[in-house]
């Protein structure tokens, strides 16, 4: 695939109905770049290797990297309580307010119900205002009890960067990461992105998204726009040096992911961790409004891949790119997406029926008239108007694991039901642990 990537990328975006994509990869010390399709279906502007795509939550690794840099300077440790660094920090649980640490934030183990998408304005104080608004956030699970993705935790982490550097997060990012690496196509603000070709997100059905990007307060959690080659350069520095004295501290397993079938088996410090063909893989993905990005790096081989897309069946697309590319470059087998078992599995799913809810979503497990188990997912909060409710059948894989997919979607979604040590029932899907509420 590597040698014919230009043609192959065009074939894959057509197969997965992706309007446009860009790809960069590092192998044997050389960076290769490709692009295909269009940045915006309404304008027809072609995607190029220098086009900026929103990399979404891949940004979290950049924010984590800055905090580890500051830790190496002695300004904090990963186990420093957040309240020592931000005395004004508050969440609803007073004990969590006092004891949650930087490590909890960067490994998604804080339990803070953190899908708060709140527009606190365009000013340089937007992250500061966002942290103030976290005072009402409840616990999704007890501190350190399991892993559940927390966007808010990374905005709080970004505020710690601001406090320790005396600069807004965007400026600190430029000073600590962008400029030292010589990145020329990495920005955080729309007025900066306008200097380049920039991708527009597309929603289901292929229509351009009604808005371009997220609110500025989401910066430390997901606001970087970049060309894939810049993202590859960032990950390369984690493998070869240039940002941290010891980047391996970020690859150490912090917590097992209850649902290991989508992203990886464990969370590190910022990075998601997995194993392909016996080799460690560090990765992260990102989704914004109609845009998607994936970054993978294999420390043993030095190979780094970043692929970006602006709509369509983007998750299945990036998985297909990784499967073919890593197979050819490194002889690695990317684990296939979990699907239904060859032979149906009989499971009594009655205990799983009910409503599971957190700040960003309500998920209802029920039964269709024919007895089929179903899952209905409704977005809550600021992004609800951009996401139509989804409902699809669930198929048992084993006693606690199920898969399902929307009509026409080639990608299966895995759902794992589990209980905490205290017996509280949860559902884990989309990297988030959601408690059963009724």
Question: Topology, please?
Answer:
Elements: H1 5-15, E1 20-27, E2 30-37, E3 53-54, H2 59-72, H3 82-85, H4 94-99, H5 102-106, H6 126-133, H7 151-165, H8 169-181, E4 186-187, H9 190-193, H10 219-222, E5 225-226, H11 228-240, E6 255-256, E7 266-267, E8 272-276, E9 279-287, E10 292-298, E11 303-309, H12 314-330, E12 354-358, E13 361-367, E14 373-379, E15 390-393, E16 395-396, E17 401-404, E18 413-419, E19 425-429, E20 432-435
Helix pairs in contact: 2-7, 2-8, 6-7
Q: How would you describe this structure to a colleague?
A:
With 438 residues, the protein is of the alpha+beta class. It is built from twelve helices and 20 strands. Strand 8 (272-276) and strand 9 form a beta hairpin. Helix 2 (59-72) crosses helix 8 and helix 6 crosses helix 7. It is globular and about 60 Å long. The model has no long low-confidence stretch (mean pLDDT 96).
């Amino acid at each position: 695939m590597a040698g014919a990537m230009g043609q192959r990328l065009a074939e894959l975006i057509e197969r997965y109905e992706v309007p446009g994509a860009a790809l960069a990869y590092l192998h044997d010390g050389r960076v290769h770049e490709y692009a295909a399709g269009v940045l915006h279906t309404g304008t027809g502007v072609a995607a190029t290797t220098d086009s900026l795509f929103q990399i979404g939550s891949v940004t979290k690794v950049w924010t984590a990297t800055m905090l580890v840099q500051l830790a190496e300077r002695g300004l904090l440790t990963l186990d420093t309580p957040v309240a020592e660094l931000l005395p004004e920090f508050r969440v609803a649980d007073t004990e969590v307010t006092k004891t949650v640490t930087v490590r909890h934030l960067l490994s998604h183990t804080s339990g803070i119900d953190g899908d708060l998408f709140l527009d606190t304005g365009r000013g340089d104080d937007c992250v500061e205002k966002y942290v103030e608004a976290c005072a009402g956030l409840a616990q999704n699970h007890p501190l350190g009890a399991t892993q559940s993705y927390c966007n808010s935790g990374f905005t709080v982490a970004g505020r710690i960067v601001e406090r320790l550097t005396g600069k807004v997060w965007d400026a600190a990012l430029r000073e600590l990461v962008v400029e030292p690496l010589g990145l020329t196509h990495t920005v955080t603000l729309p007025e900066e992105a306008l200097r380049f070709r920039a991708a527009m997100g597309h929603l289901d059905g292929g229509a351009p998204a009604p808005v371009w990007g997220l609110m500025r307060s989401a910066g430390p959690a997901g606001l970087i726009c970049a060309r894939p080659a810049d993202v590859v350069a960032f990950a390369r520095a984690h493998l070869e040096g240039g940002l941290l004295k010891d980047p391996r501290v970020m690859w150490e397993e912090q917590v097992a992911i209850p649902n290991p079938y989508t992203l990886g088996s464990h969370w590190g410090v910022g990075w998601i961790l997995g194993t392909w063909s016996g080799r460690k893989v560090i990765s992260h993905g990102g989704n914004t409004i109609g845009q998607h990005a994936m970054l993978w790096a294999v420390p043993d081989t030095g190979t780094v891949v970043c692929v970006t897309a602006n709509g369509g069946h983007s998750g299945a697309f990036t998985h297909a790119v990784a499967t073919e590319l890593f197979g050819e470059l490194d002889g690695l087998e990317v684990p296939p997406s979990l699907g239904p078992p060859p032979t149906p599995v009989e499971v009594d799913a009655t205990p799983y029926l009910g409503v599971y809810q957190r700040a960003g979503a309500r998920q209802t497990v029920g039964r269709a008239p024919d007895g089929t188990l179903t899952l209905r997912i409704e977005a809550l909060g600021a992004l609800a108007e951009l996401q139509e409710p989804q409902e699809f059948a669930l198929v048992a894989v084993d006693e606690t694991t199920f898969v399902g997919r929307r009509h026409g979607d080639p990608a299966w979604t895995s759902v794992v039901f589990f209980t905490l040590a205290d017996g509280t029932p949860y559902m884990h899907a989309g990297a988030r642990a959601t408690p059963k509420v009724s």
